[in-house]
């Protein structure tokens, strides 16, 4: 096997399920058919029966991509978590307070430069930083009807 | 009086600044210079060291006068700016807006932890940004001041007088905060996770103003400073100033000690260095950029400005139980150098460190002040009265 195939590929994705398919065992299909490891980071079903799920999937890269394609075939909207979160670079003061609560170290202090680095790939869009940042520099897109 | 080998005066240094000949270093560079050349040579070669900090400074506010806007005359009894109440118990149209005052209808901590989205600090930032704010005033009406209310949009340029007037800034040393309880707490030192999982600290270390002049040999009433991107002055000791704390052999306090009262015209300030803050679960505040020039008058002052991060000992305190119960226990001291490293050992446990003071912006303040002095735009002042210190 080439190195590329064996290397574990990891991705945080956000799924939006239309009400019709809320009941289907789609996530377990990811595990069974594509041999992926799935870590549920956040789950929510609105009163209108729309479902939202934030997952970390990991496995062979090719299988991850196939799994995502499968989700899309099932009418699930798949977005990259990193597209849902942003930092207002003009506003960020690089104080460091957000690093206290970021559970994934997506926000972390560069000890040399004393700047707070934001690594979107590690972010799970949990939203904790949006409440803690004293100048509101972190923004997470909120799902429709999510609040 | 101690006698020194190097003796310079502020007047001489100012003359060199005017001629564009003054040698100015930021406090980081000075630490290196003193290490390299020793205090005496450093005192001969360097004229001014610029310090800087950019940190939450809750005891800040705006003293302003709205003028007599439209006839008839008004003596304000209650004043709001963007629905944030100001104190109006002063003559006719003077008011004071505190940085930590939230909007009147803020839900506070009713839904815990509260967000405190907007307050006095935000009004100050908005004014400096040139934004129009909603000014509202009520009065009871008198023969000389018949008007009973006022409601209009106003910008900073329309205010006849608006000065930042901060009763307590620039704390010389501060507590490093931890939480020994088993639930997360939200404090003015930021969020503290349960069971000693993070330690939050606020200072710019060796570039912080009051670590560079720990015994107030040069800073006093009338010292001209960088304040919020403009020019300000030290008015004297701030509230809660402690003149005689326990000190290290370098004169650095081992506990929160000296503080400054500061004032400056808001109209010359820059929103990059004045930011309204919302502290989850605690309240509103203002981050203020302050830079203080230290004239290197003799080798003792050169030596003080040679302070390094490893010299600074910060007291670790428990904000979960001890602080709210007024228990003075200091768990231990940790150096600023260790705090900067990302992890320190407290009570035998490795604890993640979390800064609250922006180091890059603090350094930017020191460097901006340095460039003002180098360009001859900023002259030093002779303090009228030094701050109490022992
Ligand atoms: S808390 Fe906000 S301002 Fe401070 S470093 Fe994090 S994102 Fe930037
Ligand atoms: S949303 Fe914020 S706190 Fe949560 S993982 Fe992403 S960066 Fe960290």
From TrEMBL, chain B:
Organism: Nitratidesulfovibrio oxamicus
Domain Homocysteine biosynthesis enzyme sulfur-incorporation positions: 22-380
Taxonomic path: Bacteria, Pseudomonadati, Thermodesulfobacteriota, Desulfovibrionia, Desulfovibrionales
Alphabetized Pfam families for the sequence: HcyBio (PF01837)
Protein name: Homocysteine biosynthesis enzyme sulfur-incorporation domain-containing protein
InterPro entries tied to this protein: HcyBio
């Amino acid at each position: 096997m080439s190195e590329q195939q064996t290397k574990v590929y990891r991705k945080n994705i956000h799924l939006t399920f239309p009400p019709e398919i809320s009941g289907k065992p789609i996530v377990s299909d990811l595990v069974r058919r594509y041999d992926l490891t799935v870590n549920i980071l956040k789950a929510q079903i609105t009163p209108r029966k729309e479902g939202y799920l934030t997952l970390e999937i990991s496995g062979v890269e090719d299988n991850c991509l196939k799994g995502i394609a499968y989700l899309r075939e099932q009418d699930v909207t798949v977005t990259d978590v990193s597209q849902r979160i942003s930092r207002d670079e003009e506003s960020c003061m690089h104080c460091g307070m957000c690093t206290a609560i970021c559970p994934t170290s997506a926000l972390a202090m560069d000890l040399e430069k004393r700047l707070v680095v934001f690594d979107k790939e590690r972010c799970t869009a949990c939203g904790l930083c949006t409440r803690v940042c004293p100048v509101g520099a972190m923004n997470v897109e909120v799902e429709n009807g999510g609040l | 009086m101690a006698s020194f080998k190097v003796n310079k005066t502020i007047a001489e240094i100012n003359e060199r600044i005017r001629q564009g000949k003054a040698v100015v270093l930021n406090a980081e560079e000075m630490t290196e210079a003193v290490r390299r050349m020793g205090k005496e040579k450093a005192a001969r070669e360097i004229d001014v060291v610029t310090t800087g900090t950019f940190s939450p400074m809750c005891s800040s506010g705006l003293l302003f006068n709205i003028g007599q806007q439209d006839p008839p005359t008004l003596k304000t009894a209650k004043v709001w700016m963007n629905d944030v109440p100001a104190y109006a118990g002063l003559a006719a149209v003077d008011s004071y807006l505190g940085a930590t005052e939230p909007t009147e209808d803020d839900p506070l901590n009713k839904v815990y932890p509260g967000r405190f989205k907007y307050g006095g600090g935000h009004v100050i930032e908005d004014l400096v940004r040139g934004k129009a704010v909603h000014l509202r005033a009520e009065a009871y009406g008198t023969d000389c001041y018949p008007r009973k209310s006022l409601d209009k949009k106003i910008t900073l340029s329309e205010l006849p007088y608006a000065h930042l007037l901060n009763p307590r800034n620039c704390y010389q040393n501060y507590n490093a905060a931890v939480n020994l309880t088993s639930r997360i707490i939200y404090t003015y030192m930021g969020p503290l996770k349960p069971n000693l999982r993070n330690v939050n600290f606020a200072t710019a270390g060796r570039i912080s103003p009051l670590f560079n002049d720990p015994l107030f040999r040069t800073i006093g009433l009338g010292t001209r400073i960088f304040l919020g991107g403009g020019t300000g002055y030290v008015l004297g000791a701030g509230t809660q100033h402690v003149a005689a704390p326990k000190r290290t052999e370098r004169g650095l306090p081992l506990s929160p000690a000296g503080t400054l009262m500061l004032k400056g015209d808001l109209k010359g300030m820059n929103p990059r260095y004045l930011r309204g803050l919302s502290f989850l679960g605690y309240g509103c505040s203002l981050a203020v950029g302050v830079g203080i020039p230290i004239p290197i008058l003799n080798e003792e002052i050169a030596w003080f400005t040679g302070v390094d991060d490893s010299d600074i000992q910060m007291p670790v305190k428990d904000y979960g139980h001890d602080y709210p119960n007024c228990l003075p226990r200091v768990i231990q001291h940790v150096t600023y150098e260790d705090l900067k490293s990302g992890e320190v050992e407290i009570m035998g446990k490795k604890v993640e460190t979390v800064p609250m003071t922006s180091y890059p912006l603090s350094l930017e303040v020191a460097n901006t002040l340095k460039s003002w002095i180098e360009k001859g735009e900023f002259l030093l002042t002779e303090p009228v009265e030094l701050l109490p210190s022992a």
